[in-house]
Structure formats: C-alpha cells, structure tokens
Amino acid sequence: MSYPTQRPRRLRRTPAMRRLVSETSLAPRQLVLPMFVRENAAEPRTVPSMPGVVQHSMESLRKAVVEAVEAGVGGLMLFAIPEHKDARGSGAYHPEGALNSAIREVVAEVGDATVVMADLCLDEFTDHGHCGLLTADGTVDNDATLDAYQEMARAQAEAGVHVVGPSGMMDGQVAAVREALDGAGHSDVAILAYAAKYASAFYGPFRDAVESTLSGDRRTYQQDPANVVEALREVRLDVEEGADIVMVKPAMSYLDVVARVRSAVDVPVAAYQVSGEYAMVEAAAANGWIDRDRAVLESLGAIRRAGAEIILTYWAVEAARYLRNS
Ligand code: PBG
Q1: What is the H or E stretch that residue 16 is in?
Q2: Domain ranges, ordered by start, for the chain
Q3: Distance of CA 178 from the midpoint of ligand 1 (Å)
C-alpha cells in the first residue's frame, strides 16, 4: 500500500479552512431583482408557475422595492403588464404607460439607493407578442423596430430610469438606443444589453407572468442554443455599439457562454437566471426532491464562478437577506 502525498482533503477539513480557501463569493450588491407590475391592478396577483413571484399593483410594488433596498440588492429590473396591447405596442412609449409610470414611482421611492433598470422590449406591449414591429406579411421588421426602441428609450429616460435593458435581439439595437438617449440629453443613462439571449424553453413561466400572447416563436431574432461563437459576436457588436454591461440569458444552461463572454470583453458581465430556472428549483423543492435553500445558493454561486459579476434572479431579496445574516 502506498499512501497519497497529495491530500486535497486537508483544505476541506473544517468550516474555517473551507471558508479560507473559498474561491467564489456572492454579495447582495451583485443581485438584481426582476419585478412585474400590472397596470391598474388593485391587488397583487400570484403567478402560478412562479411560486413566490407576483404581478404587483403600484402600491405593492412600492412596498416591495423598499424591502429590496433594505435587503441590499444591487438593482431592480422592471417589467410591466399593460391593460391594452396593440400592434405597435403603444403603451411602451406613452409617458403614463404601465412601465413608464412604474419607473417614475420606483425612482421617486428609492432615489439613488439602488439601481433602477427597465426592460426595453415590445413583447409585453404588442398584441401579437413579438419583441418587434411586424411587416404586412408577419415577419419582424428589424429597422422599424429600432425606431420604436428609440422612442421607448426616450420615454424610459424621461421617467428617470438609471439603466435600460434592450432585450429584443434586433440588430443594431444598442447603437439605436444609445443615439436616442444621447440625442435627448440622457447620456448618463446606462445600457445593460441582453447581448447573448437564446431562444430558450426556460422563459415559459415568464410568459405567464407577463401574460404573453405570442404565437409562434422567436427563433428569427433570439439565438440558437447550439451556438457559442455567435454569442461572442453579438457581445462584441454590443460593446462596440456602446453597451455598458452585457448579459447572457438564460444562465444555468449557458455557464460556458458566461465564461467565454467574461474573458472576451472588458465591461461587467451579467447573467439572467430566468423564470424556468427558478420554477424548476421551486417545483422540485415543493415535491421534497431537493433542498431548496442549498440549491438556490449553489446555482447563484455557479453563475458567479462562471464569471458573471451581476446576477438577475427572482431570489434576489431572499438570497440578499441570507447573505447579510451569514
Ligand atoms: C423580453 C424578455 C423575456 C424575458 C426577459 N425579457 C421573454 C422572452 O424573451 O421571451 C424572460 C425572463 C424570464 O424568463 O425570466 N421582454
């Protein structure tokens, strides 16, 4: 019998030793909470496929953002469900539209205590459910959509948003949004670009949350899950166009993409742990099949380890509270 001279277990022997050699850390400031607000809702409504997540009323939204700030989260990402949808997504541009009103309320509530972000995309606002405007034959019109995104960016900036998150995967969207913001005197509003966004099955519960009316799919604008080189190109273009932060989405099935993107760019990298990733863990935990709290922290730690400095997650407040108390 020859005994090992190399013994990695020495560094795992006690909690103190494990803490000393831990390579990855996670802090509340790195977590961003996505939030949904429903126009003219009197009460918050549950989202059945996302236990613990609600469509807020304006009043419950205000309360929830105060709690999120108290927990120390790094930011909030706002989404809205408008009462009326149409082909152009008119609600997206109207100063009193669901999302722009929410931005105004939230910024008034939190000031600079956290970073207020808004999704910049048409899918919640269009009756056809696509992220862009359609031509007469029903295909998504890239360049007409860029004009719409410019209008939406100006409206969000006027409402006081700190960061816009263009998420429609139209070509040239970051340059268009940057130009619109700068032209309207909002050169201080930052852009978090959904740079590498995949056509993913893991967005299913989100579409319940925003009552998406999409028929068909988004494969002509979102990326093929098989591709990673394409993601590097998308990210490079977005940085060249002026993205301040680039995001990979979803997160858990795309950790290789997060790692490749982290080494390819010199801006902060975010990853979005999406609705389906949340729902999977919640559903398994509800069945008693996994330890929920450990699974949540392990998944967030893995996204950090892959290289994301910023994580959008529906567990942001809960995880932030836990991290603060531990
Ligand atoms: C587009 C948008 C989507 C999500 C965030 N922004 C939906 C989509 O692209 O189909 C998904 C987020 C999630 O699943 O948690 N506005």
Answers
A1: helix 15-21
A2: 26-325
A3: 21
Could you tell me whether strands 45-46 and 31-38 are parallel, antiparallel, or unpaired per DSSP bridges? unpaired
- The answer to the question of whether 207 is labelled as a binding residue is yes
Could you tell me which CATH number the domain at 26-325 has? Answer: 3.20.20.70
Q: What is the ipTM of this complex?
A: 0.96
Please tell me whether 203 is known to bind a ligand: no
pLDDT tens digits for 299-320? Answer: 999 999 999 999 999 999 999 9
Q: Which amino acid is at 108?
A: A
Show the ligand 1 pocket: residues with CB < 6 angstroms.
119, 121, 123, 167, 203, 206, 218, 274-275
pLDDT tens-digit profile of 232-256?
999 999 999 999 999 999 999 999 9
Active site residues: 197, 249
Cα distance from N-terminal residue to C-terminal residue, the chain: 43
Going from the Cα of 203 to the center of ligand 1, the distance in angstroms, rounded, reads: 6
